[in-house]
Amino acid sequence: MTKALDEVKIGGIGASRKRVEDSRFIRGKGRYTDDIVLPGMLHMEILRSPMAHARIKSIDTSKAWEIPGVHLVLTGEMAATRNLAWMPTLSYDTQAVLATDKVRFQGQEVACVVADDPYIAKDACDAIDVEYEPLPVVVNPEQALDEDAPVIRDDKAGQDGNVIYHWEVGDKTGTDRAFERADRISKLRLHYPRSHPSPIECCASVADYDRATQKLTVYMTTQAPHIVRAAVAMIAELPEHMIRIVSPDIGGGFGNKVPVYPGYVCSILCSILLERPVKWIEDKSGNLISTGFARDMYLDSELALREDGKILGVRIHADADHGAFFADAQPSKFKIGLLHSAFACYDIPAAHLTARGVYTNKAPGGVAYRCSFRVTEAMFFQERMVHQAAKDLGIDPAEFRRRNFVRADQFPYRTPFGFLVDSGQPEKCLDVGLKAIGYEDFLKQKEEARKRGRLLGIGISTMTEPLGAGNSREYDILGIKMFDSAELRVHLTGKALLRVGTKSQGQGHETTWAQIVSHELGIPAEDVTVEEGDTDTAPFGMGTYASRSTPVGGAAISMVSRKIRAKARKLAAHLLEVSEEDIEWELGRFYVRGVPDRGVTIQECAMAAYSNMPDGMEPGLENHAYYDPPNLTWPFAVYIVTVEVDPESGVWDVLNLVAVDDCGVRINPMIVEGQIMGGLTEAYAMSNMQFITFDEEGNCVGSNYMDYLLPTAWETPGFELHSEVVTPSPHHPIGAKGIGECAAVGGPAAFVNAVMDALDGTGVRNIDMPLLPDRVWQALQTGQDVSGVPPVRTDD
Amino acid sequence: MTIVHEVRDEPAHDVPERRITVTVNGTRKVIECEPRLLLSHLLRQGLRLTGTHMGCDTTNCGACTVLVDGTPVKSCTMLAVQADGHEVTTVEGLATASELHPVQEGFREEHGLQCGFCTPGMMLASKALLDRNPDPSEEDVRWALSGNLCRCTGYQNIVKSVLWAAAKLRSEREDQ
Predict the structure, then answer these.
(1) d(CA B100, nearest CA chain A) in Å
(2) A700: left (phi over 0), alpha (psi -120 to 50) or beta
(3) Does the pLDDT value for residue B83 go beyond 50?
(4) d(Cα B146, Cα A93) in Å, to the nearest integer?
(5) What CA–CA distances, in Å, run from A239 to A210, A229, A230, A543, A747?
(6) Which of A290, A388, A647, B158 has the fewest Cβ atoms within 10 Å of its own Cβ atom?
(7) HEC per residue, A631-681
(8) What is the 3-state secondary structure (H, E, C) of A543-563?
(9) B112 belongs to a structural domain
(10) Which residues of A touch B119 (CB under 8 A)?
(11) Which residues of A are catalytic?
C-alpha cells in the first residue's frame, strides 16, 4: 500500500499554487531598488544629449558646482582619468559611459550630478552648459550604408564605414539549386519596427562603496546579477570577491534589464569617488531613449515553392540597425542572435541566411525583448512569409502549413540552419487551434460579410522557438558558458533553503522553484524558501532572460534535489537497517522493498543527517548543481486571431483569439497561463500600436508614454488559452520547456496575418507593423503596400 | 513623523518651506516641505510608504495611483501641498492589521499580478471603482483601470481579480 504523498496537494509539479511573492506585493511591501535607503545616501541624475550626432566642443560645469547640496559633477573627461569613459559591451564592442569626443544618439549620457536630493541634482544638471557642433545624422541602415554617410564610430581604429558585421549561415549552393527548381518564388520585404521592452519600473541602482572594507555593494535592477559582477570586476578593475551585486524585486524586465548601462557604472564610480552610497533612479524618458531597444530589423526574403505547396528553400537577408553601440546581450557566436531559428517548425530542405549589422545615430538596440535572442523577428518574418506564400499559391494558409510541418515522427529534427529541434506536435497544435476558433465556419462568415462590404480576416501563426540557452559548446556571453545553478540546503527539521542563479522579474520563481523541489523530494513547497539575486549568496548563474530559467535553472534544481535524495537514501538505509539496494523511493519517503509500511520520510532522513548519520558519513544535507543543458528546449505554439477591419477608418478590432501552447510539462499551470497572456498582450501591442521611431534629425519619437503607446485594459482583447497538447522535452529532467516568451514571439504575425487576410483581393501584400489605422486606411485606398521604413518628418 | 527632509551634513540651500497637514491612511501628519515636492515623493521618501511606486513621471502609467478623499489620483503629478487638508489612502492603508481588503485577496486568488510594480496603483483604482459601483461588468472594470498600465499580465487576470473582489464584497454585505 503506497503512502506516497499527493503531489498536487503538497504544491508539487502541476499545482496551480498561489504565489508566495504576492503576499508582500499586495501589501505594498515589495522591495524594489528605489525602496532602498542607506544612511548618508546621495542622489544622482544624468544629463543627456539633446542631439543625435554632434561633436562636444565644451562642457562648463561651474554653475552646477555652485548649487548648494551638490557633491559631484562628473564628466567623461573626469571618468577617463579612471579609465571609465568607455566600457566594453556584451557583444565585444565598446560603449561610452559619459561622452568625451562626441554624442552619437539623442539621450546619450554626457554628465552626471550627485546631490543631497534628486531635485537639487536635477537643478544642477540644468545648470551644466554643453556646447555642441551638430554633425549629419544617420537614422536607418539605408543612410548608414550610403557611401557619403558620416562614420559614426570614428573612435574605433580601422572603422571606415558603419557596418558592424556580415554574418551568414546555411547552405548557399543547395538553396540556389532549390530556387532554380522552384515552380514559383514568393518574395516579401518586411520591417520589424524598433520597440522598447518598457517595464513599468525604470532602471535604478544604489551603489555603496565602503572604504573601510573596500567592498562595493550595488543594489540594482538587473536580470543577470552575476554577469554584472563579472562586468564590474572587468570595467572597474575591482577584485570580484569585493563586489556584491544584489538584484532586489524587479518591476518587470523583458530583456531591458540585462545590459550594463552607463547609469549603473556612473553610480558606482560616484560612490567610489565620494565614499558614500549613491542612488540613481532613471526617469521614463531616460529609460525609453537610452536603454536597450529591440527589433529594428529589415528583411528581404524569398521562398522557393512547388506548385503543390511544398517549400523547397528559403533565402533570407536581414539588415539590423544596432544604434550607436553594438551592445546586444546575446551568445557571442551568433551575431544576429538566433534569427536562423526561423522555419524550425517546417520541414524545408535548404536554407540560407545572410545578415548585416549597422551603426546608426540611435540608442544601442537589439536586446532580446521577451525573446530568445532575435527569435521574435525570426518567427514574425517566417509566419508573414508563410502566410503570403500560401496566398500566392492560392492554398489555404492552414493547409499550406500542414503540408510543410515537421511531422511528429521526425523529431528530433535537424533544421537546415543546424538546430536540433527536440520534440513537438505542430499538426496537433494546429488542429486544436482550428477547432477552437471554428475555422471553417469563420471562412464562411468572412465570405458572407464580404458581400455586405464588411472586412473580416483570420490570421494564423504557428511556431517553435529555441529556449533555454544553452549548451556550453555553443552558447556563451563574453566567454562565460550559459549554464545555470542551484544550491539546496535541507535543514534538520526537513525545511529547506534553495538558492538559484536565475532572477525573477515577475515570473514567480519563489513559487515555482519550490514546486520542483517538492516534486523531487516530497518536501511540501511551503517548506522551501527560495532566494535569488544576491551574488554573495546565490550560486553563479547567468540570470533570467530568453526563457532560460525553467530549461536551465529549473533543471539545475531537479539535479541538486536528486543529489540530496541520493544522500537521503543512504540515511534511510541506515535508519531502516537494510542495504541501500533494498530501498525504494516514493514521493516523500523511502521504504524497504516489499515492505511498504517500513519506511522513513524525507524529513526523518534530514534529521538523521544532523543527528544520527552512519559512521564515516559527512554530516549535513546540502548540495549544489551546475546544469549544462544538452540542447535547447523547443515549445510549439499556434495562435489564431480573427479581426474585423473598418473600411472607412482602417481601425481593426480583434474578434477572437485562440492560443494553443505546448510547452511540455507545466510546473505551475496558473503561472504558465499568466505568462502566455502577458506575451499575447505584447504581441497585440506590437501589431497594433507599440513602436518607436525617429525623425530625420534623430529625435526619438516615443520618448514618453504619451507618444509611446502601450495597450491598457480597455483595448487589450480577451484570450482563450488551450493546454491540451503536451510534448515533454526529452532531455529536460522534468520534461519542461520555456514558455514566458512564446506568445510575444509568435503572436504578432497572427494579428498582422488576420488584417492582411481581411484585405484579401485588394492587391495589398504587406503593411508594416504597427498596423495603425492610417496605414490600413492608406492601403485600402491605394491598393499598395505600406512601408514603415521612412523616417517620420517632424513639423516645425 | 513631523520632519520630511533628512538631516544633512551641511545646511540645505535656502528654499521656502510650507507647512501642510495631510491625513495619510487615517493618521494626521504635519509636514514641512518644499512647495515643489511631489505627493509621490512625500509618501515614498518623507513617510517611507514605498508601496506607492513611480513609473513614468507623466501621469500615464498609474503605478503611483493613490486615493485622495476616495478618488484615484496619480501622485507623481500632484504636489504635496495640494494635498493639504485632504485624506490620502495608499496601498499600506488597504488592509487592516488582521485582514486583507478583498481587492488584495482577489489579486492573489486570480493571479492578477506578476512583477507587482503596477499592483498597488491597480488595487487602489479598483477599490475606488468598487466603492462607487459594487457590481461592475467586465467592461466597467476595463474602463476604470484604463489609466493604469500593466506590462506583465495582459489584464485578463486583473479584471478577474476585481470581479472576484466585487463578488466577495457583495456577499459580505449580504451577510451583514
Answers:
(1) 8
(2) beta
(3) yes
(4) 42
(5) 14, 10, 10, 21, 45
(6) A647
(7) CCECCEEEEEEEEEECCCCCCEEEEEEEEEEECECCCCHHHHHHHHHHHHH
(8) CCCCCCHHHHHHHHHHHHHHH
(9) yes
(10) 25-26
(11) 223, 370-371, 741
Based on the fold, state whether residues B88 and B115 are members of the same structural domain: no
Instruction: State the smallest CA–CA distance between residue B38 and chain A in angstroms.
Output: 10
As a CATH number, domain A33-135+202-250+257-290 is 3.90.1170.50
Predicted pLDDT at B16 = 78
Q: CA-to-CA distance for A235 and A99, rounded, in angstroms?
A: 16
> Considering only alpha carbons, which residue of chain B is nearest residue A31?
B50
Residue of A22, A69, A200 with shortest CB distance to B63 = A200
What residues contact B104, with CB distance under 8 A and at least 6 apart?
A: A26, A27, B94, B95, B123
ipTM field: 0.96
Nearest CB to A200; choose among B37, B117, B145: B117
Structural domain tally of chain B? 2
The minimal CB distance from A681 to the residues B60, B146, B154 is found for B154
Residue B1: what pLDDT?
39
Contact between chains at A26 and B63 (C-beta distance less than 8 A): no
Distance from CA of A595 to the nearest CA of B (A): 42
Which residues form the domain of B39? Answer: 18-93
Which residues in chain B touch residue A704, judged by CB atoms under 8 angstroms apart?
56, 58, 60
Q: Name which CATH class applies to A22-28+484-627.
A: alpha beta
Contacts of B145 in chain A (CB under 8 A): 712-714
Task: Give the percent of chain A with pLDDT over 90.
Answer: 95
List where CATH 3.30.365.10 sits in chain A. Answer: 22-28+484-627, 371-467+631-782
B105 Cα to chain A: minimum distance (Å): 8
How far, in Å, are A142, A297, A358 from residue A149 at the CA level?
10, 19, 12
Give the cell for residue A599.
Answer: 519506511
Domain with CATH 3.90.1170.50 in chain A: 33-135+202-250+257-290
Q: Which amino acid appears at position B86 of this protein?
A: H
Give the range among A413-417, A478-482, B25-29, B119-123 with minimum mean pLDDT: A478-482
CB contact under 8 Å between A67 and B13, yes or no, is: yes
Q: How many CB atoms lie within 10 A of CB B171?
A: 10
A251/B55 touch (CB, cutoff 8 Å), yes or no: yes
The answer to whether the CB of A648 falls within 8 A of the CB of A679 is no
Class of domain A371-467+631-782: alpha beta
Of B5, B10, B120, the CB nearest to A28: B120
Average the pLDDT over B73-91 and give the result: 98
CA nearest to A710 within chain B: B149
Q: CATH number, domain at B35?
A: 3.10.20.30
Q: Number of Cβ pairs closer than 8 Å across A and B? A: 188
| CA–CA distance, A385 with A316 (Å, rounded to integer) | 11
How large is the average pLDDT for residues A583-606? 97
| Spatial distance between the Cα atoms of B68 and B55, rounded to a whole number of angstroms | 19
| Interchain pair B53, A681: CB under 8 A | no
